[in-house]
Specification:
With 493 residues, the chain is of the alpha/beta class. The protein folds into three domains: 9-172, 3-Layer(aba) Sandwich (Rossmann fold); 184-421, pyruvate-formate lyase- activating enzyme, CATH 3.80.30; 427-491, Beta Barrel (OB fold (Dihydrolipoamide Acetyltransferase, E2P)), CATH 2.40.50. It has 15 helices and 22 strands. The protein has a seven-stranded parallel β-sheet, sandwiched between helices. The structure holds 5'-deoxyadenosine and iron/sulfur cluster (SF4). It holds the Pfam family UPF0004. Its cofactor is [4Fe-4S] cluster.
Length: 493
């Protein structure tokens, strides 16, 4: 960041991609969230906030923390832009189209800011960690009041204070490796399912990925902090927790005083009385035998494994720096299937990585055939400034990439449909989330394997674990009918 820009304001700490890349040996600091300063505790009385969240579950959960901080300052939530006194865009940097949406949103909000000059408009999340983004906002979106990074969330009361009382744009983005901040307030809007961070950051540096730069180094929360949070959620009646991390299998690798890894954590979470435990997202490289052994004990540990493969070609995997081959991935999946025969696998796949050949793409198709995933998130490669892949020569035309994505999706959809078809007539356990979005007479929920089920049944089932017979499987959802206790007893379930 140039000195000229630095002079822009007294409240200006800009992101620095080079600094974000550094990984030192220093111990991870566990900090406690400080009380909201006295003069900020009432600042939001009678005022409203709106957070627009883009990207992954990590961001969704960060938004719950940001909401928690704002509510401690007296703000209340609104869904209406028009009535908001503060609007924060919690952004995602993973692909260009995610970023385009945010810039579109910022452009649109300009009119509102002109109408309502006291509105505080802020940008946070992964995009704010990028130098190019902050520069673009400084140049073209000067109606933004506040930019803060993923490491600065706990600083929000101070930053907001500056934004409210100065007329300058407040920018605070630390490009550090990161700490762990405990006891941040949270507003969980869903009383059934909760996200629980177990670790932050990523040290994998896959060549296409911006996350290690935007989220800092791998650092784990202490086991007792995680377990206490989950126990507390169980006491409050939550039915499901999802353990979150950019790479959950690396949990505990950074502890220097204890030998306690993700398998150990899962084994302890298994003993807590919460009906369902999920985790996301895992990297095949750190998925060890102990973890498989623990997952095979089942109970509340669901038989759903999201295992991003990215490509079926060992040569492409090497260029991606994934640090496993096609064969190693398949071997890992075989081991998991052996231990948990009914495990449902899902994955993430990138097509059109720089230089990907037709043959290499076909290896991805054949891996998908072999793995028989229940579903997959599929993406066209998007160059991210500052990552090694962005500098690689890419001779694959966009048309070809689009066509590959289509072929991959056609194949996966066919497999998904077949997989769901196999559930016809079966009785599955569903956690009922509420009325279906499309039809208030239909209830909707998810199986242990995270499949969406729409079914007919009385409203009092909402919030409960019930049984549903699947009678109309579709490619992405399942339709069925509620099976009550009496009927269940008849069929011997
Ligand atoms: N381009 C396309 N897809 C990407 N992903 C991560 N970085 C990129 C990129 N530069 C995908 C990966 C990852 C998922 C969350 O997003 O498949 O697993
Ligand atoms: Fe997007 Fe990755 Fe940041 Fe999540 S961690 S918001 S996917 S860039």
């Amino acid at each position: 960041m140039s000195q000229k820009v630095k002079d822009y304001s007294q409240y200006f700490i800009a992101p620095d991609l080079k600094a974000a890349k550094k990984r030192g040996k220093e111990e991870i600091q566990v900090l406690q969230f400080e009380q909201i300063p006295e003069n900020m505790r009432q600042v939001g009385q009678g005022k409203k906030y709106l957070i627009q969240t883009y990207g992954c579950q990590m961001n969704v959960h960060d938004s719950e923390t940001i909401a928690g901080i704002l509510e401690q300052m007296g703000y209340t939530a609104t869904e209406e832009e028009q009535e908001a006194d503060i609007i924060l865009l919690n952004t995602c940097a993973i692909r260009e189209n995610a970023e385009d949406k945010v810039f579109g949103g910022l452009g649109r909000l300009k009119r509102l800011k002109l109408e309502k000059p006291d509105l505080i408009l802020g940008v946070c999340g992964c995009m704010s960690q990028e130098e190019s983004v902050v520069n673009r906002i400084l140049q073209s979106y000067q109606h933004v009041d506040l930019i803060f990074g993923t490491h600065n969330i706990h600083r929000l009361p101070y930053l907001l204070q500056n934004a409210l009382f100065s007329k300058e744009m407040v920018v605070e983005v630390w490009s550090k490796e990161g700490d762990v901040v405990e006891n941040m307030p949270k507003v969980r809007t869903d009383g059934l399912r909760a996200w629980v961070n177990i670790m932050y950051g990523c040290d994998k540096f896959c060549t296409y990925c911006i996350v290690p730069y935007t989220r800092g180094k791998e650092r784990s929360r202490r086991p007792e902090d995680v377990l206490n949070e989950i126990r507390d959620l169980a006491r409050k009646g939550y039915q499901e927790v999802t353990l979150l991390g950019q790479n959950v299998n690396a949990y505990g690798k950074d502890f220097t005083d204890i030998n306690y890894r993700f398998g150990d954590l899962m084994d302890d979470v298994r003993k807590i009385g919460i009906p369902r435990v999920r985790f996301t997202t895992s990297h095949p490289r750190d998925f060890d035998d102990h973890l498989i052994e623990v997952l095979a004990k089942r109970g509340n540990l669901v038989e759903h494994i999201h295992l991003p493969v990215q490509s079926g070609s060992s040569a492409v995997l090497k260029m991606m720096a994934r640090k496993y081959t096609r064969e190693q991935y398949l071997e890992l999946a075989r081991k998991i299937k052996q231990a948990i025969p009914d495990a449902v696998f899902t994955t993430d796949i990138i097509v059109g990585f720089p230089g990907e050949t037709e043959e290499q793409f076909q290896e991805t198709l054949s891996l998908v055939e072999e793995m028989q995933y229940d579903s997959a998130f599929t993406f066209i490669y998007s160059p991210r400034e500052g990552t090694p892949a962005a500098k690689m020569k890419d001779d694959v035309p966009m048309e070809v990439k689009k066509e590959r994505l289509q072929r991959l999706n056609d194949l996966q959809n066919e497999i998904s449909r077949k997989k769901n078809e196999a559930l016809r007539g079966q009785i599955v356990e569903v956690l009922v989330e509420g009325e279906s979005k499309k039809n208030a007479n239909v209830l909707s929920g998810r199986t242990r394997t995270n499949k969406l089920v729409n079914f007919t049944g009385p409203k009092h089932l909402i919030g409960k674990l019930v049984h549903v017979r699947i009678d109309e499987p579709q490619t992405w959802t399942l339709k069925g009918v509620w099976v009550d206790q009496e009927q269940l007893a008849q069929v011997g379930v």
